Amino acid sequence: xxxxxxxxxxxxxxxxxxxxxxxxxxxxxxxxxxxxxxxxxxxxxxxxxxxxxxxxxxxxxxxxxxxxxxxxxxxxxxxxxxxxxxxxxxxxxxxxxxxxxxxxxxxxxxxxxxxxxxxxxxxxxxxxxxxxxxxxxxxxxxxxxxxxxxxxxxxxxxxxxxxxxxxxxxxxxxxxxxxxxxxxxxxxxxxxxxxxxxxxxxxxxxxxxxxxxxxxxxxxxxxxxxxxxxxxxxxxxxxxxxxxxxxxxxxxxxxxxxxxxxxxxxxxxxxxxxxxxx
Length: 278
Known about the structure:
Layout: H1 18-27, E1 36-38, H2 40-49, E2 53-59, H3 66-76, E3 81-84, H4 86-93, E4 101-105, H5 113-122, E5 128-133, H6 138-150, E6 155-159, H7 168-173, E7 183-186, H8 189-198, E8 202-212, E9 222-227, H9 235-240, E10 243-246, H10 258-277
Parallel strand pairs: 2-3, 5-6, 5-9, 6-7, 8-9, 8-10
Antiparallel strand pairs: 1-4, 2-4
């Protein structure tokens, strides 16, 4: 996470054993992700099933025959279509006969933003939502979903592009929380913020040089915005936020992992809400 004070500190580099660990990892046998669907007929069935699909990969230069049909269906459903070389497809399928097409299905179907707000209303609570601006690591997404569920958040909102979705790795990292947390995927985060502001939500960007998070009132209808692992919150999204909150750091490392930072702030929201209710 790129939020936080002490930005001139130097972080420690990788340990001298890191390359050895990478080599050992490469030697471990891989298993095909159960959300990976390959082959033209299988992908066609997936696209027609109504199940949410994260993205579809096609082999570069292969735009003939049934591939065009699959591209048309994916485009109509607004599923990202990514052209890659055969080596990438071979890697995704562990060398299986993929026919130049691979689709990644979502571990579970997505909710809508309206469904998240309706859930808050059903519980008689002010909406508490988490927005993720470009989180790309499925382990981080899963950990954030787990923390959000534990803190009583009503939903998580992620962008359709340049971000990880509900893959099996994210599901495993959530430790079961994915079954209880509503996750919505939107085309444009900035527009979504504008729409939610009109519905009464206040937005808190987790970034450096903000007010200490525990000194900020987050008891009302609120949305916590967390940025990507490498770049933090994008300029446009941050400008849309009403407040910036930071986590003071006292050690030698200059930032927290995005999922750790999110957990800290989310539990503070839960604490403030409990005090207000009590």
